[in-house]
UniProtKB/TrEMBL annotation:
Family affiliation: Belongs to the small GTPase superfamily. Arf family.
Keywords per UniProt: ER-Golgi transport, GTP-binding, Lipoprotein, Magnesium, Metal-binding, Myristate, Nucleotide-binding, Transport
InterPro entries: P-loop_NTPase (IPR027417), Small_GTP-bd (IPR005225), Small_GTPase_ARF (IPR024156), Small_GTPase_ARF/SAR (IPR006689)
GTP-binding found in the keyword field: yes
A GO MF term: GTPase activity
Name used for this protein in its record: Uncharacterized protein
Binding site residues for Mg(2+): 31, 55
CDD domains: Arfrp1 (cd04160)
Cellular component GO terms held in the UniProt record: Golgi apparatus
Residues binding GTP, per UniProt: 24-31, 77, 133-136
Length: 203
């Protein structure tokens, strides 16, 4: 019985696509990360950093990571564009929240934007992976220091992890994505989204 259920579970997930939102304030490195994800996990070579411009619309990256199909949505982080983020919340399985770990003068801004994400009712139950980006810079704070700044230890009800990365060098990214994939698979929100998708197909 267990192996039957396990087989069914695996079958469902091998066919499912997970929607992952990439959020964070402007210049944190979201699009640079998206392009690196394409390089790491697909046949497409992502754009080099010097060809990336600030995001106004939406960038999409479809990859297969750790035997799981992932669709990343990368949105613009400028102040005037952040109100668009919530339009994507209902359909998102998880969030990757990118922080520029070397810009201490912007930690307050990134903290308050993250708090709104964590508290939003449309994202209830979604795992949140905070990427402490730009670890290649000498003045970057590490993942532990950053979680102290962001006061993330108090968020007990949320599945949350802080991971140091460099979107330039690619370090730390796969470790974080592996955690996210496992978190999404063991998650009530994922089951709910899957049921909604199935209901939409049978209507
Ligand atoms: N040193 C360093 N710089 C980075 C890294 N990732 C991104 N950057 C730089 O940070 C700046 C912003 O990168 P983007 O990827 O455009 O940032 P974004 O978060 O997509 O910005 P918006 O689209 O405006 O919200 C660029 O100059 C990047 O080259 C990194 O890992 N290390
Ligand atoms: Mg961008």
């Amino acid at each position: 019985m267990f192996s039957l259920l396990y087989g069914l579970w695996n079958y469902l997930f091998s066919h499912a696509e997970f929607h992952v939102l990439i959020l964070g304030i402007d210049k944190s490195g979201k699009t640079t990360l998206l392009e690196k994800l394409k390089t790491l996990y697909s046949d497409i070579e992502g754009l080099p950093p010097d060809r990336i411009v600030p995001t106004v619309g939406l960038n999409i990256g479809r990859v297969e990571a750790h035997k799981t199909k992932l669709i990343f949505w990368d949105l613009g982080g400028q102040l005037g564009l952040r109100s668009i983020w919530e339009k994507y919340y209902e359909e998102a399985h998880a969030v990757v929240y990118v922080v520029d770990s070397a810009s201490r003068n912007r930690f307050e801004d990134t903290k308050s934007a993250l708090e709104k994400v964590v508290r939003h009712p449309d994202l209830q139950g979604a795992p949140i992976l905070v990427f402490a980006n730009k670890q290649d810079l000498p003045n970057a704070v590490n993942a532990e220091e950053l979680s102290r700044y962001l006061e993330l230890k108090d968020q007990k009800s949320v599945q949350l992890r802080v991971q140091g990365i460099s979107a330039y060098e690619g370090t730390g990214i796969q470790e974080g994505v592996l955690w996210l994939v496992e978190a999404m698979k063991n998650n009530v929100r994922t089951l709910q989204l899957q049921r909604q998708a199935e209901a939409a197909v049978t209507l």
